[in-house]
Amino acid sequence: MAQVVVVTSGKGGVGKTTSTAAIGAALAQEGQSVAVVDFDIGLRNLDLILGAERRVVYDLVNVIQGHANLSQALIRDKRIETLYLLPASQTRDKDALTEEGVYRVISELRERFDWVICDSPAGIERGATMAMRHADLALIVTNPEVSSVRDSDRIIGLLDSKTEKAERGEWMEKLLLLTRYDPGRANRGDMLKTEDVLEILSIPLLGIIPESQDVLRASNLGSPVTLNNPQSAPARAYLEAARRLKGESIAVTVPRDKKGFFNTLFGRKAA
Amino acid sequence: MNLLRFLKPRDTAPVARDRLQILLAHERSLVGRSDLVAILREEILAVIAKHVAIDPDKVKVKMAKGETLSTLEVDLEIRAPSNTRIALAS
Asked: Do A189 and B35 touch (CB under 8 A)?
């Protein structure tokens, strides 16, 4: 039975799409079958981050409206054969997402994949509520910064009230993915520490992704960071987070970029 | 180096944490999760009103969130005479 995961944050620009691509690819690298679904109707980007922008023919809205079937719209990754993308529409607006249509697509994806990862748009409007609607589990992407933490708190409130699971009276599982973390600045007292964010949001931690130029480099090339440079600090953090998501228990650490001494000390076994 | 440390303004992260804690305590009581208290209040009221006469204005429902334990406190006044009558009738 597939797990449907929503990657959400409230605030824009915190790393939802990067994280969707990296976690999706990491799970697929572990041999799982994965579909990543872009819910950002009108502003799609997951295709670009995955390097599939020139292969989009049909999209989520086409499938919802019955103009294409799922097999026609799904794009298979050229590097990892168990990773598929269902792109968002670039031309329609978010009202094209109907409740029944989204339910039908998610149900069909559940049958075909181990993981269905829904990349939510920023904000709390229709695209965002539809992305979280049928999820079994939510990844809250948060930067250690006041506005991101506040918006994450708001999203947690919505996950606990507006999802199918919440409406059935069930517990919605939520995990924190702390992104763009700079251990140096946190230690100097200039950035919220992991403990601060965890205490404020009171949800379990899935992983800490360090701020790194490798993320931008990977996006330039249209390759998830876990594939583009698996040894880099953010890639190792995402790969570990994906394994935790699969149920493995690995202690959360902040992988470092420093080469040499630190790599021999912390790096090797994690990657 | 040490001298520079003295000259440096105080750490900003603790200020961020404190501001967030105060703000979110307030926002959580206004949006989202407070719906639950409002819904509970309505439904508890309806159930009790079926059996005893109560004054809706004298019902207080409070939810307190603790580290490991959250409590729901329901405080309501029941007028004695009507209570007795219902008890006899049933």
From this structure: no
CB A140 within 8 A of CB A20: no
Closest partner CB to B13 (pick from A150, A154, A193): A193
Query: Pick from B12, B19, B24: which is nearest to A189 by CB?
Result: B12
- Cβ-defined contact of A190 to B24 (cutoff 8 Å): no
Predicted confidence at residue A164, as pLDDT, reads: 95
* Segment (H or E) for B19: helix B13-30
Q: Which residue of B has its CA nearest to A162?
A: B32
Q: How far is A148 from chain B (nearest CA, A)?
A: 11
Cβ-defined contact of B33 to A153 (cutoff 8 Å): no
Give the strand pairing for A34-38 and A205-210: unpaired
Q: What pTM, to 2 d.p., does this model score?
A: 0.79
Residues B46/B61, Cβ–Cβ less than 8 Å? no
What is the per-residue pLDDT for A149?
97
Q: Which segments in chain A show pLDDT lower than 70?
A: 257-271
CB of A5 less than 8 A from some CB of B? no
Of A10 and B90, the structure prediction assigns the larger pLDDT to A10
**pLDDT on residue A269:** 43
Read off the pLDDT band of B90 (50, 70, 90).
very low
Q: Does A158 touch chain B (CB under 8 A)?
A: yes
Query: Is A146–B21 a contact, with Cβ atoms under 8 angstroms apart?
Result: no
- A169 Cβ under 8 Å from any chain B Cβ: no
